[in-house]
Amino acid sequence: MSSMSLAKKIGLTLAMALTFFVVLAVVSYVAVSNLNDSFGEFSKSVEDGEEAADKVVTALSMRSNISEFLSSASSEHVAHHKEMYGAMVSSLAEGKRKATSEEASKALASAGDLMEGYNKAFQSIVDLKGKQTALLNNTVQPGSQEIKDLLQEMLVADQSKGDIAGAFVTSSALQTVFEAESAINRVIVKYSDKDIAKAKSLVADLGAKLKTLKDDYQINVDFDESLRDELKDRVLPRCLEANSEFAGGVSELASALKSIHEIYNRDLLPVGPKFVEKIDVYRRSIAKHQAELKADAESLQATVGLLVLAISGLGLAIGSVGGWIVVRGITRNIDGIVGRLQSAAGETLNASEQVSSSSDALARDSSEQAASIEETSSSLEEVNAMTEKNAQNAENAKKLASEARLAAESGAESMKDMITAMQDIKESSDNIANIIKTIDEIAFQTNILALNAAVEAARAGESGAGFAVVADEVRSLAHRSAEAASITAEKIENSVQKSERGVEINQRVAENLQTIVSHTQKMDDIVGEISDASAEQNRGVGLIQTSIHNMDSVTQRNAAAAEETASSSRVLLEQSNDMQRTIQDLVSVVNGGNRSSAPRASKKPAPKKEVQSFDMPAPRSAPAAQASRDDAFVDLWDN
Q1: Which DSSP state fits 606?
Q2: Which of 85, 171, 235, 589 is 20 to 30 Å from 259 by CA-CA measure?
């Protein structure tokens, strides 16, 4: 421990204290989380108990709804039953999913089966009730009304005829119809086997009375045909037929009402107590789960209290011992540390002064270097501008040399064409000279022929005098032709000589042009090389200028950095002085001088967390209370 630094000692002590605080906080957090979870489960169990009570209320509402349906046969009650049954099935399924025990799950499953049978029984009653309504509307009520109408018609006829006996029997039959209707209505309102038997008996009595009326009438007619009455012939058979249909409808109605009564007593009424019994099993399971949660919470509270006390005591002991060791180590080594701090502070002050002076000199040199590089950059920009201008002039000279070369080559080609033309002219002159020589020879031959003709004309004498004149003229023409051919030959010879001289001159001009073309090509190549060299020189100067710009930027940054370094050196110097004064204060504090008092932080007690208690009143489970509640439900169910 003595070899550890002060920071490590303090850090270790704080770490140990924080470790115990963290452990204490973790234990408390886990405990509170578990308590909250337990309380959450307890709250859910209370909600489950309330939902169980809601299920019982829903069952009573379904029971009341069925009673109202039996009295009114309204479709609204059927729709309301479907809605309540769907809510009941969903609630039972949700409760079964959240059940905490197998017993509760089985109880809810049995309750669901009871409700399913209850719903099926209600559907059967709905079907029978529909049949009852159809029988009443289509058979029973129309039949009784028809019988009453026919009997009243007969009664009016008998009274008008003064047939007192017939009117009495008809009136008795009509009274029987009314009594049968009343008995049927009583059965519809409230089922009774006695009323059913009475209604059937009245319907049978009505049939007997109608048959007696018909038989008596038939006997009278058989005895005296004048007593035949068209009204009775029509009404009495129809009354018997209507009574037969009425009796059948009453019988079917009685069967439907009996089935409704049996289903109601067998499949509906017993469901209520059984359903409550299953719900009570579910409630008892919830109460048991609540008791277990309460016991677990109380045990957890006790365990957490012991852990908190133990951890707090251990942390207090370790913190006290660690604090004593740290204070002891600090007081033992503080004097040596203060001495070393004083010497280090002195050295730091000297070094800071040297760094400050060096930084100032570096900043001045960097500023001067930045100025020199900036001037060099300006000069290079001017050189670069001149180099770019030379490169442009070289490029223009290259273009002009290329154009001169093209013109010289074109002149050489034209000279070659002219030489060819001169050669053609010389050949034409030679051909003309040959033709002139031929003409000269022809003139010479003509002259000879003319002399021969003159000689022959002289020999002929006077007969050849005309021919001699012609021969003389021919000789004169041949002489002139020879002279003209001679003159033309001289001129053509002169022209041929000049043509030859022109060809020789053209040949020399062509040779001179060829020399000019070759020299122009060489000059074009040299100017191209000069242009390329100027372009390369321009690029090189551009690269140098870019490098100078980069050097300028770097130098500017270095100058800025040097200024910042100088500023930081001055700050360091000031901080060194502050540190020197701080060490003097520390020495005075260690040696018992004046101390600067710091305000102590006031400690506030941590707020206590509110722990929610599980000490809630337990639900009543006494046999007397349970029996009282069951009796109340049975009374509600049955009534």
Answers
A1: P
A2: 85
φ, ψ (nearest 5 deg) of residue 224: -140, 110
* 130/152 Cα distance (integer angstroms): 31
Buried-exposed string 596-613: b where 16+ CB fall within 10 A, e elsewhere: eeeeeeeeeeeeeeeeee
Segment 44-77, tens digit of pLDDT? 656 666 776 677 777 777 777 777 777 777 788 8
Distance (Å, rounded) from C-alpha 106 to C-alpha 111? Answer: 9
Tokens of 279: 């719900």
Residue 114: partners with Cβ closer than 8 Å, 6 or more residues away: 271, 274, 275, 278
Q: Please report, for residues 67, 73, 157, 510, 627, the alpha-carbon distance to residue 633 in angstroms, rounded to integers and kept in the order given.
A: 16, 25, 61, 142, 10
Segment 168-224, tens digit of pLDDT = 888 888 898 898 888 888 888 787 788 888 888 888 888 888 888 888 888 888 888
Whether 450 and 322 share a structural domain: yes
Domain interval for residue 147: 131-268
Question: Which positions ≥6 away from 312 have C-beta within 8 Å?
Answer: 20, 24
- Predicted TM-score (pTM) above 0.90: no
Contacts of 548 (CB under 8 A, 6+ apart): 373, 376, 377, 380
The last residue of a domain, from among 585, 613, 630:
585
User: What CA–CA distance (Å, rounded) separates 444 from 341?
Assistant: 148
- Rounded-to-integer distance, Cα 130 and Cα 256, Å: 10
Rounded Cα gap, residues 344 and 351, in angstroms: 10
